[in-house]
Amino acid sequence: MAGNFSFDQLKKAVQAGEIDTVLACIVDMQGRLAGKRFLAQYFVDSAHDETHGCNYLLAADIDMEPVPGYKAASWSKGYGDFVMKPDLSTLRRIPWLEKTALVICDVLDHHTHDDLPHSPRAILKKQVKRLTERGYIGYFASELEFYLFSETYDSARKKHWQGLDTASPYIGDYQIGITTKEEGVMRRLRNEMEAAGIPIENSKGEWGPGQEEINVRYAEALDMADRHVILKNGAKEIAESEGKAISFMAKYNYGLAGNSSHIHNSLWSADGKTPLFFDKQADWTLSTLGQQWAAGQLKYAKEFTWFLAPYINSYKRFQAGTFAPTKIMWSEDNRTAGFRLCGEGTKGIRMECRIGGADLNPYLAFAALIAAGLAGIDEKLELQKPFVGDAYQASRLPEIPKTLRDATETLTKSKMLKQALGEDVLEHYVHTAKWEQFEYDRRITDWELHRGFERY
To answer: How does pLDDT run across 22-33, given as a tens digit for each residue?
Structure first.
C-alpha cells in the first residue's frame, strides 16, 4: 500500500501553503469515493486520526437513496455514524485539483473500532489476510476501458444521453492518428496519475469510437484497488475540466463495444521476489498452485459474477462477437474466453479474468477472485485443458449468467462465498443485488415507450 506523500511531507506542504485541502475518502458499495474536504491544517492537527460519516453510505443505492431491509443500517437503527480512519500510507497529492491531497480511509465500527465487515475495503483486506497467512502476495492489475465524449455531463444530460458526440468519430483501436485527437484528456490523465503515485504503463484507443483503455502497473491487491478508484474518479474530474465527459458504463450503446475491466492476477512469495505460478516443467508453464487457483475461479465463476457485473446494464455487455466473454472457460491467449492465460513461459505468467465490466467495484471483484482461487487450492482442483477456437460458437461450454436476476440467484446460493466473506456480508450484497433488480423492474424504459406508446 503506497501513496506518494508521507504525513511529514504533508505537514511541511501545509505549513508552506502548498496544500490547503485534504480529501478524506471512503469507498462506497458502488466503488465511488465518498467523504469530506478538510481544511488541510485541521486535518494535520487532528482529523488525520479519525473522522466520522453516516452509516447509510454503505446502505444506499447509486442514487444515494437509503435502501430498506439492510441489517447493518436502517431507519429503525437511526442511521448512526461509522468511523472513517485515514490510512496514511495512501496519502498522495492530486495534481489535477489545486493544492489538494487525498487519503483513503478504512471504515470502522463506531463502538468497537473494528473494520466494518461489509465495507468494500474491509472485505478485500480480509481476503488479503488469508493470502498473507499462507505466505502469498496477490498481485493484481485492472485494465479500465471508457468512452470519451466531446460533450460535458450537462450537455449529455440535456440530450437525454442520446446522439452524443464521441471524442473521435470512428473506431480507432490501436490507431495513433485518430487517438491524437483525444490527447488533450489522455495525456493529462497519464501524466497526472503518474504524478499522483499511480504508475501508468500506457493508454490506447479501443474498439469503439472515442473508446479508451488505460493500463496501470500491477500492484498488491489492496494498493491496486485504491489506484483503480482514484483513477476512475480523477479521469472524470480531468475530463470535465477539459469540457469533456467520460462514461464507464458497461454498455452505453447497444451497437457499440462495451467497457470492460479485465483483471490480471497471480500469486508471489511473501517477499515479492518469487512467482508462484511459474514452473518451466508444468503444463502451460503454470505451476500446480496456479492451476488450482485458476480451477477455483472457473468452478465458482457463476457464483461470483455479481461482484464483476453488479448492475442491470452490466449484463448487456455479454454479447457474442464483441470481445466480451459469454462462456466460462480458460484458454491460452484467446480473447473469446472468460479467462485467458497471459505471460506463458515467463515469470509474469498470470490469469486474466475478462468477465468484469468497468462498472465493477474493484475491492469486491478482487476479493471474490481471491476467495475462489483459494477455494481451488484448498480443494486441490484439477485444471481442465484449455479451450481452443471460437468460444462464442461453442454450445456445450458453461455460460456466464445472462442477467442480473440469474447472477443474484447463484450469488445467494454460494456456500463458498458465505464461508469466505461471512454470512452477514454475503447477505448484505445479495440484498444490494435484489434492490437493483427491484428498482429496474418497476421503472418504465425509453425502449418500452418507443415500442408501445402507439402500437400496443
So the answer is: 999 999 999 999
Q: How far is CA 158 from each of CA 152, 247, 450, rounded to the nearest angstrom?
A: 10, 16, 19
- The number of angstroms, rounded, from the C-alpha of 225 to the middle of its chain's C-alpha atoms is 7
Please state, in angstroms and rounded to a whole number, the distance separating the CA atoms of residues 340 and 369: 14
The pTM is what? 0.96
Residues 6+ apart with CB under 8 A from 129: none
Q: What is the pLDDT of residues 112-133, one digit of tens each?
A: 999 999 999 999 999 999 999 9
**In 10 A of CB 189, how many CB atoms?**
25
Is residue 1's pLDDT more than 70? no
Q: How far is CA 263 from each of CA 140, 144, 186, 378, rounded to the nearest angstrom? A: 7, 9, 21, 22
Is residue 179 very low, low, confident or very high in pLDDT (cuts 50, 70, 90)?
Answer: confident
The cell numbers describing 291, all together, are: 492451476
Q: Is the separation of the CB atoms in 178 and 241 below 8 Å?
A: no
Confirm if 79 and 56 have CB atoms less than 8 A apart.
yes
Is residue 428 a contact partner of residue 361, using CB atoms and an 8 Å limit? Answer: no
